[in-house]
Amino acid sequence: MSTLFEHARKLDAHGQVDDFWMLVEGDTILSTGHGAGPDATTRVDVGGHWLVPGFMDLHGHGGGGHSFDDGPGEMEAALATHRAHGTTRSVISLVANPLASLRTSLNEIADIADADPLVLGAHLEGPFLAQNRRGAHNGEFLRDPAPYEVEELLGAARGTLRQITIAPELPNAMEAIDVLVEAGVTVAIGHTEATFELAREAFDRGARIITHVFNAMPGIHHRAPGPVVAAFEDERVCLELILDGEHVHPDVAAMVFASAPGRVALVTDAMAAAGSHDGDYSLGSLTVTVHKGIARLRGTPTIAGSTLTLDQALRVAIQRSGITPARAVEALTLTPARALNLQHRHGLLAAGFAADAVLLDHDWKVTEVWADGRRI
Hints:
The chain is an alpha/beta fold. It is built from ten helices and 21 strands. Strands 1, 2, 3, 4, 5, 19, 20 and 21 form an eight-stranded mixed beta sheet that branches. An eight-stranded parallel beta sheet has the order 6-9-10-11-12-13-14-15. Strands 16-17-18 form a three-stranded antiparallel beta sheet, with no helix packed on it. A hairpin with a 2-residue loop joins strand 20 and strand 21 (374-375). The radius of gyration is 20 Å and the shape is globular. The protein starts with a strand and ends with a strand. Substrate binds at residues 136, 215-216, 223, 247, 303-305. Its cofactor is a divalent metal cation. Belongs to the metallo-dependent hydrolases superfamily. NagA family.
């Protein structure tokens, strides 16, 4: 059964094409073009609206009132919220918890990923983080990356650990990076006190992402450039950016895009309140209060994730940071795919790519979502 999307304004990392058509068979794009399209079993008239690739979120903790740390049912409910906002492929992120709890969660994510190809695997944001940069992670559960513990976590994930965040200054961290890279895990540095020099060393050892750039790490100082500048300078490194207008000022976000063209991945770092309402929520073992859409550890000024969805990040990028639409869409699609070495299957509306697509109106709001060729 084939589906033809026609009369679209296609926008992806390769640019804009008007009067675009896309022929889909099963879960794959067969061909694309513009003007009159071929015959198909089903036709979808896009009506001149934007058609962009499905969004990919490298880093999120929940949504719709549900947390990824609370078991399979909660994971699936949170994923449904983000899918309604255009995120067709998700990495499920876990905060720092006791190792036994993390092993259980990794095993549950592996089961979900086995059954649902839209789930790319797991991201361990903890427990190998710096105490002084822990943010909304419970300091009681932070630890140094002992080799046998890294191996236990890898085993629990059963090949589905996609990403892990590590503070490279911790004892054994560089050796852990070696082990993880060899196992095919994408290593990120974050929640760290790393200097410019130490960040460069981590990147040379194989780390390829900087977790939510500027947040939970040293900033840029004229005599101490820090990990942010190290990431700017390294063409191998992808920079996660939480673009909700709060975590990073929109003008600083524009500087990030200019300093690392094609290497910025917009992420949500969303906790359970994304797509939900203000109030108290759990983030791992900690309580978070959301007021006017801003999540903070209860009783503190510490930001605790976001209430962001990726379509909101797209609008902030275009409307407040002045990023061109093509570059903003790239940061939601092809760049995160590259970060996970999935760029040959995801991130473009082109033949041979996964049939993931989002229909947006002229205000950049999601109206319909398809994943693997199915409307979701």
